[in-house]
């Protein structure tokens, strides 16, 4: 088996185009990408996985406007482009994502995916920067950051665990949270994903800077910053009823939490307590760590206030936004009336077929989803492709947001569809052959006819993981 790089021969010289503007990416990862550097280029590369033989088999010409190209078949046999047969001397337009097989059958030939590179001005440059690890250290524990968080407005960085501990101590003393490094009052703290990459690169480059696993476990256990926290929202003076609030005042009122304004449900916020901002209504709720009610959606880790305020018997805010409990509740209490938009990779042909299969069985979407959720809860469904965070921990009593619930329903409907026998299908859908690329097929999104003709609710049988 050869692992040589695919090569291309230059046909027409073009001096303005030295960088590759597109490439052919072999789906079999044992082969290398073929860069397309010229506006018109003859491709000479492996066509079969079984031999290292190369010959010229197609010519790719860049179309004006960069997004597409014309592919001409110059081999001695038919080739396949997006599953359509292109006979000898034939030509077809290709776009980024088009799948090309340099022969008439998939069995014996390699497959390539045509990929257009981003335009030069938007192409991200990979810069090599050097960084002194001393500048990537937490001033509390003096180690390279772990799960780094950034405090604002001063923008100093700390380990999540170290800063969480510091914040707890300030709150216990009813004090402002001051930055441990510069003593500025911290108004906001959040995880810094960009610096987390740097933190990881440093530890990869110099493993002597790593901390023992036991230390990391202790640190993780005290980390309480899951999403962005707003700290020490100031208590506003009572507005006179005679004076209507200015726009600015209304804005700052919007950012207040009902339990900062008054004692509600037996709780009043600490004067400088940390708050979470609800992802849905943008209202504030206290970041209480010692209560049972969830403040974050497990599927997406974003904060939602619906369950919290309902547990505090707050159903609407006076002048502050508060979500209804309907927006954030356990999976077991949710119902679904129609197939969510994101189901079957947003392919509406497949959604329509699933809808008709359900109708033909005399069932409802809710009925089908409830049945498949029971199987899910009994751990009879493989969760590896589930599009939610913490997939393994999700049960019937897990609170999820509307968006995550729709993703879960889409996931369950996939399993419903792939396990259906063909006699449950409507007549026009019963004879469709599976697309080789299954749910991962990109052609289904830009080629109506292909989406109609082939079934895409199936596992890929071709692609990056040759079977
Ligand atoms: Zn630290
Ligand atoms: Zn600071
Ligand atoms: Zn509050
Ligand atoms: Zn969610
Ligand atoms: Zn809310
Ligand atoms: Zn397809």
UniProtKB/TrEMBL annotation:
It comes from the Eukaryota. InterPro entries: CHFR_Znf-CRD, E3_ubiquitin-ligase_CHFR, Znf_C3HC4_RING-type, Znf_RING, Znf_RING/FYVE/PHD. GO terms for cellular component: nucleus. Residues 138-183 form the RING-type domain. GO terms for molecular function: ubiquitin-protein transferase activity; zinc ion binding. The keyword Transferase applies. Pfam families: zf-C3HC4, zf-CRD. It is found in: Nucleus. One of its GO terms (biological process) is ubiquitin-dependent protein catabolic process. Keywords: Cell cycle, Metal-binding, Nucleus, Transferase, Ubl conjugation pathway, Zinc, Zinc-finger. SMART domains: RING. This is Uncharacterized protein LOC108807318. It comes from Raphanus sativus.
